[in-house]
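User: Small ask, check this?
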Amino acid sequence: MKHPQLDVPVTLSGTKEYCYRTPRFPGGFAVQVKIGEVAVDGVCTDLSEHGLGANLKQNLALGTGVELLFRLPNATATFRVPASVTHRKGSHHGFAFIGDPVAAPRDHAPLRLVKS
């Protein structure tokens, strides 16, 4: 099924339809969310070119600017990516990466690794 205006696949989840701009990849790895000097631990649920979802031990306000620190499975480098909180439902948070991954691919090196 495709989204009628965006011509991209629509993923069905439960009873709601979600339209994603780019494919999502399963997470399952640790992520640390830094807000200034405060760090909140969590687990990534999914990762895409534009952001990630994570279950966190502490709730964050929408619009909060953060730095995400994570290491992809089997990777040796820890990636640091600026992001903002775009949605929250219970302990699950959605983060949008700040910056354009196409215009500034060096800022989104972990995303190139996921896609290849």
